[in-house]
Amino acid sequence: MIWSWNTFLFGIYPYIAGTIFLLGSIIRYEREQAGWTSYSSQILASKRYMMWASNLWHIGILTLFLGHFTGFLTDILEWLGLDPVEHQWLAASAGITAGVVAMVGGVMLLLRRVLDPKVRYASRPMDIIILVWLLITLCFGLSTQFISVPEVIHDHVQNMEILIHYVRSIAEFQANPQLIINIPLIYKVHMFCGFTVFLLFPFSRLVHIWTVPLNYVVRPYQLVRSKIRSVV
Ligand code: HEM
């Protein structure tokens, strides 16, 4: 492998970010249990505003997260009868919708964080840095669609196929950055920002994702009895 920025950023950096993501999360969990929290500031905001901002953000981001995995499912999608052009249409329409939803929610969260004096006072610098970084990543992700959509309109999915192979090569620990040497820059910038999210993850409030209380959905209801006995 010949050394170049492309090789470093897309062949080595993803593993540096991945290692920091895993080791950093473990070390933080072991050492800093008290700081393992989403640092929710919900209590400091108008309930209605926060409900919209938080729901739009989480729905958008989680849909994008799942959408990014469809790149690994091309064989299954083909088996289901979806050809690559249809796959790209589906990915672009769902991805753009989710991206815009997340952007609206994210901007609302950021505005509240910097403009509301109480929330700002309760925020650590990293709370703002990670939100801004996610929004930048989101902007570049959405910008890739200025290339992807015109391509798919002309039934071309060349870039998509190259990117799927590249991302797979990373996941299979056989990184092949040469695959994307000629890919338009905007995809590279977006992927670099995406890898960096993993690098920043253990130092941010994002760690709450590891311990999201999914059992809340299935656990039995909590019984809360009123002190005042109801008169039947
Ligand atoms: C390891 C991290 C990531 C990688 C490798 C990655 C890769 C990609 C690629 C290759 C595309 C273009 C798909 C196409 O048009 O063919 C894309 C699109 C997009 N990405 Fe990412 N991404 C990453 C993380 C993120 C994150 C963290 C966000 C959100 C904050 C995000 C938001 C988007 C959006 C909104 C689009 C456009 C809509 C879509 O195609 O889903 N990405 N990403």
In short:
InterPro entries: Heme-iron_electron_transfer, NarG-like_domain, NarG-like_sf, Nitrate_red_gam. The chain is an all-alpha fold and 232 residues long.
Keywords:
232 residues; mainly alpha; Fumarate Reductase Cytochrome B subunit; 9 helices; globular; binds protoporphyrin IX containing FE; heme; transmembrane helix; EC 1.7.5.1
Question: In words, what does this structure look like?
Answer:
It is globular, with a radius of gyration of 21 Å. The protein has nine helices and no strands. The chain has helices spanning 5-31, 47-69, 74-79, 84-115, 117-122, 125-143, 145-153, 158-171, 185-200. It has a single domain (5-212), classed as Fumarate Reductase Cytochrome B subunit. Protoporphyrin IX containing FE (HEM) binds next to helix 2, helix 4, helix 6, helix 7 and helix 8. Pfam families: Nitrate_red_gam. Its EC number is 1.7.5.1. The chain crosses the membrane at residues 12-29, 49-69, 89-115, 127-147, 179-201. It is found in: Cell membrane.
Q: Might you state the CATH topology name?
A: Fumarate Reductase Cytochrome B subunit
Bound molecules: protoporphyrin IX containing FE
- Unreliable residue stretches: none
Strand content: under 5%
Elements, N to C (H/E): HHHHHHHHH
Largest sheet: none
Task: Break the fold down into its secondary structure elements and pairings.
Elements: H1 5-31, H2 47-69, H3 74-79, H4 84-115, H5 117-122, H6 125-143, H7 145-153, H8 158-171, H9 185-200
Helix pairs in contact: 1-9, 2-4, 4-6, 4-7, 6-9
The structure holds protoporphyrin IX containing FE (HEM).
Residues 64, 67-68, 91-92, 95-96, 99, 134, 137-138, 141-142, 144-145, 148, 160, 163, 167, 187, 190-191, 194-195, 197 line the site of protoporphyrin IX containing FE.
Subcellular location: Cell membrane
Transmembrane segments: 12-29, 49-69, 89-115, 127-147, 179-201
Domain NarG-like: 6-227
